[in-house]
């Protein structure tokens, strides 16, 4: 009999909190700083200051939607914290949804925690740091926004840095179009934090271990999670500010093109391709656009091949984890594997392999979409499953495991492809194997 009596007050306060958050969302969309602060505990000075800064920054971001949903109760407050706030204080688990105008076709989603207090019979927000929260860049400092022709850059870094990233992002988008086609949102959101601490918080990491190896990352929903809207979400490119001081102009171009390729491939995909295929394809697009060949961009790996220490297996997911070890050899190896597919089996087959592994059907704007010969290699003939479209997802299909996708698309199995890749690496290293040449896809 006791449980229902306890549940009613919780339901009532959740309903009251939802009304408060609805009012907060309306104020955010209206750029109404006073409206947001009216919903904050007057005694929470530091939180009020952060909220004012956040809303002022969001006024520069072209938001199409912003809403909250109360999910449930968050972690219990420590007794001393609760005593300081008042006995009625509690932490709410909240889901934030938003869309950036001209970019997002489904909601971006974030987990947030809000500490809620009662003052004079009215519920107010007192903090957002008493439970787990995934911040956005506007939660970390004063943000500025620069819009390019194909890029929206949002960051706490100085404006000249944001302007540089916008120019690089615009050029990167054109290079991606040239290889992947135009069937993707074609506007990239680039996030530029001001320092390493902000980068760590944006990525939800405990520390910066290994991030010195990473110039930028693409972040987004797990396509295979089944979460609502995950398959249609548009990823963000997050730049490591420390890398900007190290990379030259060409290096920055390569990095932004690589990450923009991920954004394009993952847009509308039902699953993420295996890491070696995903990273290798992004490297191929980036280096091709920059005019760099293996003798320059994969020199360290080829030296290992010449010394008899070359890789014998395609890179695994762990090989790309900067917290585990050095990642550069994995990226080079993946690039050369994708290069083998491109040279031996052709560009159309490479694109179809990426689509098959990610569960994305060829559509209008993809290379060869209107070409009968290209359609012969399309979803039906490659064995990709039934289509499944949702809002913003584009045309999705059931992704194929690589062990099935490789023979169906390339006409050879994964072991043969691995052998071809090793032969081509040996040839590039000058170890005596013949240079790969384009074939009809039979692995010869």
What report would you give on this structure?
By secondary structure, the protein is an alpha+beta fold. The chain folds into 3 domains: 2-134, Nuclear Transport Factor 2, Chain: A, CATH 3.10.450.50; 136-264, Zincin-like (2-Layer Sandwich), CATH 3.30.2010; 268-444, no CATH class. 44% of the residues lie in helices and 15% in strands. The chain has helices spanning 2-29, 33-37, 45-58, 79-85, 159-180, 196-203, 241-244, 249-266, 275-290, 294-297, 299-306, 328-345, 347-358, 372-375, 379-382, 402-410, 414-428, and strands at residues 63-73, 90-100, 108-119, 122-127, 144-147, 151-155, 188-192, 216-219, 236-239, 387-388, 396-397. The strands form 3 sheets. Strands 5-6-7-9-8 form a 5-stranded mixed sheet, with helices on both faces. Strands 1-2-3-4 form a 4-stranded antiparallel sheet, with helices on one face. Strand 2 and strand 3 form a beta hairpin. The longest helix has 28 residues, at 2-29. Residues 1-8, 370-394 and 432-444 have low confidence and may be disordered.
């Amino acid at each position: 009999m006791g449980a229902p009596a306890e549940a009613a007050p919780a339901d009532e306060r959740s309903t009251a909190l939802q009304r408060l958050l609805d009012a907060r969302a309306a104020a955010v969309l209206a750029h109404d700083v006073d409206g947001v602060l009216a919903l904050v505990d007057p005694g929470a000075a530091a939180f009020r200051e952060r909220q004012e800064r956040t809303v002022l920054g969001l006024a520069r971001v072209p938001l199409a939607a912003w809403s909250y949903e109360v999910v449930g109760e968050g972690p219990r407050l420590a007794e001393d914290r609760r005593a300081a706030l008042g006995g009625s204080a509690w932490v709410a688990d909240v889901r934030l949804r938003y869309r950036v105008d001209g970019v997002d076709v489904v909601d971006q989603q974030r987990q947030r925690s809000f500490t809620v207090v009662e003052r004079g019979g009215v519920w107010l927000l007192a903090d957002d740091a008493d439970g787990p929260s995934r911040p956005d860049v506007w939660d970390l400092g004063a943000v500025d926004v620069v819009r390019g022709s194909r890029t929206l850059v949002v960051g706490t870094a100085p404006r000249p840095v944001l302007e540089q990233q916008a120019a690089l992002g615009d050029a990167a988008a054109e290079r991606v179009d040239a290889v992947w086609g135009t069937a993707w949102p074609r506007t990239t959101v680039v996030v530029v934090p001001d320092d390493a601490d902000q980068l760590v918080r944006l990525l939800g990491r405990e520390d910066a271990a290994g991030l010195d190896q990473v110039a930028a990352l693409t972040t987004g929903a797990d396509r295979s999670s089944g979460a609502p809207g995950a398959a249609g979400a548009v990823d963000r490119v997050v730049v490591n500010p420390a890398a900007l001081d190290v990379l030259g102009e060409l290096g920055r171009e390569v990095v932004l093109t690589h990450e923009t390729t991920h954004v394009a491939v993952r847009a509308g995909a039902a699953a993420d391709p295996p890491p070696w295929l995903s990273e290798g394809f992004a490297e191929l697009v980036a280096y091709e656009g920059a005019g760099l060949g293996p003798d320059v961009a994969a020199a360290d790996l080829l030296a290992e091949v010449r010394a008899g220490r070359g890789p014998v297996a395609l890179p695994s997911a762990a090989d790309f984890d900067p917290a585990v070890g050095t990642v550069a050899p994995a990226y080079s190896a993946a690039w050369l594997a994708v290069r083998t597919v491109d040279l031996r089996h052709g560009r159309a087959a490479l694109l179809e392999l990426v689509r098959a592994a990610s569960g994305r059907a060829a559509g209008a704007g993809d290379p060869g979409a209107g070409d009968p010969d290209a359609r012969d290699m399309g979803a039906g003939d490659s064995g990709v499953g039934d289509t499944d479209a949702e809002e913003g997802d584009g045309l999705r299909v059931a992704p194929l495991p690589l062990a099935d996708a490789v023979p169906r698309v390339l006409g050879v199995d994964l072991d043969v492809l691995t052998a071809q890749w090793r032969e081509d690496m040996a040839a590039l290293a000058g170890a005596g194997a013949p240079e790969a040449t384009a074939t009809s896809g039979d692995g010869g």
